[in-house]
Request: fold
Amino acid sequence: MWFWLLKNSLNRVVVRLARRGRGPFALVRHVGRTSGASYETPLLLARIDGDFVAELTYGPRVAWHRNVVAAAGRCQVVAGGRIYEIDRVEVLPAGDGLRAFGNPAAVVLRLLRRRDFRLLVVARSGP
Reply:
């Protein structure tokens, strides 16, 4: 019931705001690993050295993460009204992930014992 309510109310508003570059949310655009359908998942992402950091609140088995891993780490991030091509996803040590989010978010993440972070690496153009 709770997930249905989020998906059909709050997520719709958050997706619209993130597409316009408003608010703290970003979108991860990914393709379903079995369906081939396109999806947009709203997330709070931090920045580190030009890349993005995601905290996996529900663990590595969440659909968006499994879809991106199945696509060899390829997806798009829409943040601040810009589209970023992601070409790989790496496990990020918890300390690095917490530092990327900074305070007060890191304090909350520590209290919630969140330790599962991923680095979404932005594709760099060659010379």
